[in-house]
Amino acid sequence: MPIKNQQVAERAFLRPLYADDYFPDHVLDKGTAILLNLCERIEAERPVDLQALYVLTEAATEQFNLLEAEFEAAGSEIETVAREEIAEDFWFVASAYGFPDADVEELIAARDW
After folding, report:
1. pTM for the structure as a whole
2. Contact 61, 110 (CB under 8 A)
3. If you write DSSP's letter for every residue of the chain in order, what string do you get?
4. What is the mean pLDDT of residues 21-43?
5. What is the pLDDT of residues 53-67, one digit of tens each?
6. CB burial class (10 A; 0-12, 13-18, 19+) of residue 87?
7. How confident is the model at residue 71 (pLDDT cuts 50, 70, 90)?
8. What is the Cα–Cα distance from 45 to 74, expressed in whole angstroms?
């Protein structure tokens, strides 16, 4: 399903991480797919409030938790720079879909990284 939100469609998720050789592109591609899938779910399910949005972001955060093992297998990890970039992209998604007051810590509360 193509993303309808123009702001999101034009976003290059995790962009600073792609510029750093420490982070393997093939794993970052999976992270980007998680974020795009989150956007698709938001567009399909249209959460009416922050609590409904947090349910969707929790599922996406849990997918990033699983991705940590792939980072490690590739000699990398979700460390401080990556955590901040992922969190920023989660907040960008929330804001782009009308939730600028979303708490970034709540958006990624289920994280293990």
Report:
1. 0.96
2. yes
3. -----HHHHT--TTHHHHTSTTS-HHHHHHHHHHHHHHHHHHHHH---SHHHHHHHHHHHHHHHHHHHHHHHHTT----HHHHHHHHHHHHHHHHHTT-TT--HHHHTTT---
4. 98
5. 999 999 999 999 999
6. middle
7. very high
8. 34
